[in-house]
Amino acid sequence: MTKFDEATGAIRVDETTYDVCLDPGYSIGGPLNGGYLMAVLLRAVVDASPHEHPVTTSAQFLRAAVPGPAQVRLEQIKTGRTATMTRASLVRDGDSIIESLVTTATLGGAAPDWTDGPSVAMPPMEQCLRLPAPKTESNMTLNAQMDLAFDPPTIGWLDGRPSGRPEARAYFRMAEPQDPDPYVLALAVDCLPPVVFSAGERGWAPTVDLTWHLRALPAPGWLTLIGGGRLISDGWFDEDVEVWDSTGRLVAQSRQLARVGRG
Predict the structure, then answer these.
(1) Which DSSP letter does residue 114 get?
(2) What is the DSSP string of 56-73?
(3) 55-72 residue pLDDT tens
(4) Contact 29, 67 (CB under 8 A)
(5) Are 119 and 168 in contact (CB under 8 A)?
(6) Which residues of 175-222 form beta strands (DSSP E)?
(7) What is the pTM of this model?
(8) Is 65 exposed, middle or buried (0-12, 13-18, 19+ CB in 10 A)?
(9) CB distance 171 to 146 below 8 Å
């Protein structure tokens, strides 16, 4: 079991309740990362389901989450031979942090009937760049859990040269050796710097709504993350992320709506 497995673990209390402990290692400066929180929630949903994989998750982020004990509360809406629909809430100190609808199913390894390639080509790994290590006082502990190698133009904002487009692209793997699985993918779809940074915005950009789809079980190795946006307007922006595995297969897709950061 890896540290990530432990940090996302869910202990069954009864048919509809799981105890969890939100880990301080996934902080983005105070609040916990939304992808990490979804992974915690999905551990409980899958454990309670007759199906093995969370194929679609739609999450509303109601409050910023901080480390400590919490619960996942489940309501199974419908179950059948091929899919189960569950309403799941992540609750801490009596307050709901995330409200979600999750559909679980069991995916096989069939070859796709049709597939397109990545929307943007990535440069070779050796041409990519890492972000500098955050200062200890920033409480940005999430960075230490991942290894991200960025397409250089998408982190030009670091030295005052944003590309002018909402975009973020990187190769991704966990810092501790671990083959990617659906829970790692839940983290991956929300681990890039907000795409508005590359358009010249800065500051914490809280997610309001995020929906992601598990399209296939990923092969071992690096993942490729390609993020982009279509509109920044009136203090809101959208962000789409494609996740491709080491064999070049599309394994996850996400779309979120978030607030433009302040400061």
Answers:
(1) S
(2) EEEEEE-S---SEEEEEE
(3) 999 999 999 999 999 999
(4) no
(5) no
(6) 207-214
(7) 0.96
(8) buried
(9) no
